Amino acid sequence: MIGAILAGGYGKRLKPITDHIPKALVEIKDNYTIMDRQLFDFKNIGITDVYILSGYLSEVIEERYKNYKDMNIHYLREDKPMGTLFSLSNLMKNINEDAIVRNGDTVTDINFRSFVEFSKSRDYDVVMYVTKMQSPYGIVEFSGDKVDNFREKPELNHYINAGLYYVKKSAFEAFFRKYMEKDIEKSVFPYLVNNNRMGVYCEDALWLGIDSEKDLGTIKELYKGREDTSYGYLKTLYFDEGKSIVEYYIRSGENVEIKSGKILKIGSGTGYIENDTDKKYSKGQVIRTADTTLLYAYENTIMEEISI
């Protein structure tokens, strides 16, 4: 299995930031770019060969990742934008195994291991990760002429393409058919859908497409005090005179070790403590650790660790 990142766009809505760097190299915290996070995701599930499908300012990407953490980074460069269909069919010519393909301007906390396992266990040739659509506007709820409620940009009961795909070798031939359109959303995907060869993967996790300065501001705020880890992330919410509050995000199927002298407040998710499946934790529970404690997550978990 290989990883592939679509990173050829101009990032026009992020100008002037993207005047001298491609969008994939925009920093989401100091010296930590969108692509750094994406490569971390790949490395975390054992992918060592990654293809960067680049174009605009490709040389800047190549300079940054010429010797990157025991990963083999390959480049397929376009001299001018040719569309995602060309980019991916070009990728298929150079590989002979399944691929995780993702847009180069997104950050997500989904469990990639679960995504891969789900995709492999289904008969679909391509599996797309979908995420709930957030309304770009505040929603007004009313009866008659009376306003009952106002919800600021809520999640809607609709799902959008999150720009993340598991593509099996059995799908490759679909990328070499004759199409009128240049983008996969208007060519390959409709063909696969019409032939019942495409499925979806859903998971309630952070996903953000970084397409504007507002999006960039949002992700930078989320990354204040945050460190990505193999199990999810930890984020310092408060620290003063040795006392602290740290937020943990543990993906389903992952575990984290908590040292003694902490109070744990479970905000969401379920799991169990140490190796005793009877010691379950769930949303709203408070746990005091007397010694080193290992927490395993049954489902994505958010908790706060409070030092005492």
From TrEMBL:
Nucleotidyl transferase domain sequence ranges: 3-228
CDD domains the record matches: NTP_transferase
Superkingdom of the organism of origin: Archaea
Originating organism: Ferroplasma acidarmanus Fer1
The organism's taxonomic lineage, starting at the top: Archaea, Methanobacteriati, Thermoplasmatota, Thermoplasmata, Thermoplasmatales
The protein's name: Nucleotidyl transferase domain-containing protein
InterPro entries: Mannose-1P_guanyltransferase, NTP_transferase_dom, Nucleotide-diphossugar_trans
